[in-house]
Amino acid sequence: MFQRFSRYFNPFKTINQIRDNSDNNLHEELIGFYPLKEFDAEFISTTIIEACNHMKLDLNKCVGQCYDGYATMAGCISGVQKRIKGMCPRAHFFHCPSHRLNLVINDLNVLPEVRNCITKIKDTITFFKESAVHMNVINSSNCKLTKLCEAQFVEKHKSVRQFNEKYIVIVEGLEEMSTSKHLNSKTKQRSLEILNAITTPNFVILLSIIAKYSAKFKFISTILQGVNIDLQEATKRIQELLQIIKNDRCNNECQFNLIFKKAEETAIKIEFSEVVKSINNLYGPLLDNFEEEAITWYEIRLKKPCDPNTQIIDLLEESKYYPAVNTALQIAITLPATSCSCFESYQDMGKIYNVQYEVKQFGSNSHSQK
After folding, report:
1. For the chain, what is the largest distance between any 2 Cα atoms, rounded to a whole number of angstroms?
2. Whether pLDDT at 280 is above 70
3. Average pLDDT score over the chain
C-alpha cells in the first residue's frame, strides 16, 4: 500500500483571510492510499503519476518530492525520484530529514557497547510485554513500557525515556519474579538472566547517556514530522541540535560527570532497595510499612548535604516522623558488633575475684604491701 501526500501553497487569498491576517497558507493533505502490486521503482513511480493525474494536479508545477533513503525511492540512477524528475524536471528530490536523523542515530549501533545496551532494553521490554502476568508485576507502580522499534523514530525515543524513568521499578520487578513461587522455573531463570544483564555498571551508565540524548532527539523528531514544517524550519532545528551536541563535546568532562552522577545515584538506589528488602525480611513484624517509609525517607535524605562523619545515632532525630525507619535505626544501634566487651568484663570479674581471694587468705596488709 502506497500512501501519498501532497503539499502546496495557495497564493490567492480571500478578503476574509487578508482581514484575519491568515498568512500561513501552507497545506499538507492526504491524497489517498494506493495498492502496490509490485514494489520496483518503475511501478511505484507510475502509480504516483497516475494518482496525481487522477487528482488533476498540474505536474508542471511540481517542485519537489521527499522520500526516505531507501534505494528504490532515492536511487539517483533508476529510483522513483529519478524517474519522476525525468517527467517533472522541477521536482527536485529531498531526503526526509527525520529519516536522515534516525539513520545518524542508528549509526551509533556500530559501537558494541551501545548496540548491546539497546538490545538489552529491547529484550527486557519484550519479556514484560509478552505476558500479562509479567506486566502485572510492574503495573502496580504505574509502569508503562513502549516497544522499542528502530523504524518508529518518536516512539523509539519515548521507549528509552520510559525505560530509564522506570528503571528501578523494572529491576525490582525482575528481582521479585526471579524468586517468585508462583512462576515456572523457565520464567524465573529468564528474569534472573535479564536482571543480571541490566544491572551491570556499564549498562547503567550507557542507559543514562542514551536516555539523555533520546530526550533531545525526540523533541526534534516530533518537530520534523509536523505537517506545517518547511525546509527553513527543518534546517534551523537540525542546526540547533548540532549546536547542542557540539557544546556538550566542548564540555565533555563536565557533561559526563553529570551523567555519571545520575548513574551512580541510580546504582545506589538499587543497592538501597535490596538492603531495605533484606531488613524487612529479617525484622518485618517489628517494622510496619517499612519499605515505603524507608524509600521516602531516603529520597528526602538525598537532597540534603551528606556528612561522612554522621553516625547512626545522629539519624534518630531526623527519622522521628518515620516510625518504622526510626525503629530500624534503633535495631541497627542495638545489634552487637563484637563479644570482646563481654570477654573483657569476664576478665575484670576474674581480677576482682583474685583480689578478694587474696584479701581473705592473707589479709588486707599483705595485699597492700604487694
Report:
1. 130
2. yes
3. 79
pLDDT confidence of residue 107: 81
Coil, strand or helix at 19: helix
Q: Which triple of cell numbers denotes residue 140? A: 502496580
Average pLDDT over residues 107-116: 85
Residues listed for the chain = 370
Q: Each residue of 134-169: pLDDT tens digit?
A: 888 887 667 778 888 766 667 788 888 889 888 988
Per-residue burial over 115-135, b = 16 or more CB atoms within 10 Å of its CB, e = otherwise: ebbbebbbbbbebbeeeeebb
Q: Higher pLDDT residue, 112 or 308?
A: 112
Average pLDDT of span 290-300: 79
Name the DSSP class of 307: P
What local confidence, expressed as pLDDT, does residue 370 receive?
46
Q: Check whether 124 has a pLDDT greater than 90.
A: yes
Q: What angle do helix axes 231-250 and 252-283 make, rounded to 10 degrees?
A: 80
Backbone angles phi, psi at 8, to 5 degrees: -145, 160
DSSP3 helix / strand / coil % (the chain, rounded to 5): 70, 5, 25
- Compute the Cα dihedral for 133, 135, 137, 141 and give only its sign: negative
Asked whether 85 and 91 are in contact (CB, 8 A), the reply is: yes
Question: The pTM is what?
Answer: 0.62
What is the rounded CA–CA span in Å between residue 270 and residue 247?
A: 32
The DSSP annotation for 53-121 comes to HHTT--GGG--EEEE-S-HHHH-TTTSHHHHHHHHSTT-EEEE-HHHHHHHHHHGGGGSHHHHHHHHHH
> Do residues 27 and 10 touch, judged by C-beta distance below 8 A?
yes
Provide the residue type at 303 as one letter.
K
Q: How far is CA 88 from the centre of its chain?
A: 46
